[in-house]
Amino acid sequence: GDFARRVIKANSDEGEGFSLAVRLNTAFCAEGLCKTELCEAKKRYVILDSHDLAGRVLNALLFEARERKLAVTVSLDPLSPRRLNALLLNESGVLFELGEMGEGDKQINLERFVDNAILAQNRGRERFTARCQKVLTEGAREHLEEAKKAHLSLEDIYVPAMDFGAVDRCTCLTVKEIFG
């Protein structure tokens, strides 16, 4: 609450009206997690999080942005799409995201918000969950890699026989038929 309010206030003026857009800044592909660029941020805050708290922080920032009537763009976590993994304040160009530090980035370290006594009680569960996630993610990545290879093999068969001119003509006729 207070942390998010201070951060949003320090990085934006009152907005004209709240709006929300969704774009991915990370995708899961055959190579694993792949970074896409959400935007060219003027200022970037990297959230360092080893205890899965970033989603809560980003939700608090989103709440405060809505309260200040700001236009924002969010990105969803590709492994857990109910969670945010980035939030951009569109007008000021300030980006908050999980990631690795780059030159000129500012850091939000969530370790200071962790209750070590509660953490100690749940450390075994946290480690088990992390191991499960790693195994499942690697398995999914391997299956995507296999699908990619099968797709490329299939393309090797049909692409040489493809009449791309006919495809283009068919596309043009279909567009004319639909849109006049």
Structural class: alpha/beta
**What letter string, H or E per element, gives the SSE order?**
HEEEEHEEEEHH
Number of helices: 4
The side-by-side strand order for the widest beta sheet comes to: 1-5-6-7-4-8
User: What's the assembly state of these chains?
Assistant: single chain
Strand content: 15-25%
Mean pLDDT score: 86
User: Portion of residues in helices?
Assistant: 40-55%
Termini distance? 54 Å
For the secondary structure, the number of strands is 8
Quick synopsis:
The chain contains 4 helices and 8 strands, in the order αββββαββββαα. The chain has 180 residues and is of the alpha/beta class.
From the structure above, extract its key features.
single chain; 46% helix; alpha/beta; 8 strands; six-stranded mixed β-sheet; two-stranded antiparallel sheet; 180 residues
Detailed description of the structure:
This protein is an alpha/beta fold and 180 residues long. The chain contains four helices and eight strands. The protein has helices spanning 2-10, 54-67, 116-158, 164-179, and strands at residues 19-22, 26-29, 32-35, 43-48, 71-77, 80-89, 94-98, 106-109. The strands form two sheets. Strands 1-5-6-7-4-8 form a six-stranded mixed sheet, with helices on one face. Strands 2-3 form a two-stranded antiparallel sheet. Helix 1 packs across helix 2. The longest helix is centred in the last third of the chain and has 43 residues, at 116-158. It is flat and about 65 Å long. It starts with a helix and ends with a helix. The relative contact order is 0.16. The mean pLDDT is 86.
